[in-house]
Amino acid sequence: MSKASGINIGSNELAFATVMQPNQANQFGNIHGGEIMKLMDNVAGALAHRYAKSNVVTARVEEIQFLNPIMVGAYVFCKGKIAYVGNTSMEIFITVDVVQDLSDFEDSERALEAFFTMVSLDVTGRPHKVPAYEPATDEEKELYKIAERRRENARKARHRR
């Protein structure tokens, strides 16, 4: 059983912390990538649901980068931020930081990061309009620009096919 806690940061951010358990790992103690991807998807879904105030589904996961291994017993901090909001979808930037040595919480390292596209659905399962998003801080504005460029590049790539 994982020890977990949810941390409400703000309306456009959400975080989740847990300690990784042996049942989430291979025989060498490395946590399965799918376990971490599930945590990331849960954070993206919870944040998108809270923002849109509707059912949401994962439409796309892009650029998952496994940067560092995560071992049994590690403290994992998964954080989601709204990066961009379209008409019916939201881009959520997810980061996963890990502390392998539980005696030193100041020594965390980035383990994974990815962009999740979440789509808001109405009660009939059709795409549903979401509230507009206005980034306020410099960090939010920069993340918005990055997500906007990514979306435009993805749109161009789809039209080239």
Describe the structure in your own words:
With 161 residues, this protein is an alpha+beta fold. It has one domain (4-160): Hotdog Thioesterase (Thiol Ester Dehydrase, Chain A), CATH 3.10.129.10. It is 27% helix and 38% strand. Strands 1-2-4-5-6-3 form a six-stranded antiparallel beta sheet. Strand 1 and strand 2 form a beta hairpin. It is globular and about 45 Å long. Residues 1-9 have low confidence and may be disordered.
Task: List the keywords.
38% strand; 161 residues; disordered N terminus; alpha+beta; Thiol Ester Dehydrase, Chain A; six-stranded antiparallel beta sheet
Strand content: 35-45%
Total of helices: 2
Q: Cα-atom Rg, whole angstroms?
A: 16 Å
- Which overall shape is indicated by the principal axes computed on the Cα atoms? globular
Strand order, largest beta sheet: 1-2-4-5-6-3
The CATH topology label is Thiol Ester Dehydrase, Chain A
CATH class, please?
A: Alpha Beta
Major sheet details: 6 strands, antiparallel
- Number of E-type strands: 6
Low-confidence stretches: 1-9
Terminal Cα separation, in Å? 45 Å
- Structural class by secondary-structure content: alpha+beta
Mean pLDDT metric: 89
Percentage of residues assigned to helices: 25-40%
CATH superfamily: Hotdog Thioesterase
> Which CATH architecture?
Roll
Total domain count:
1
Write the layout of secondary structure elements.
Layout: E1 4-10, E2 13-19, H1 33-52, E3 55-66, E4 75-85, E5 89-99, E6 109-121, H2 138-160
Antiparallel strand pairs: 1-2, 2-4, 3-6, 4-5, 5-6
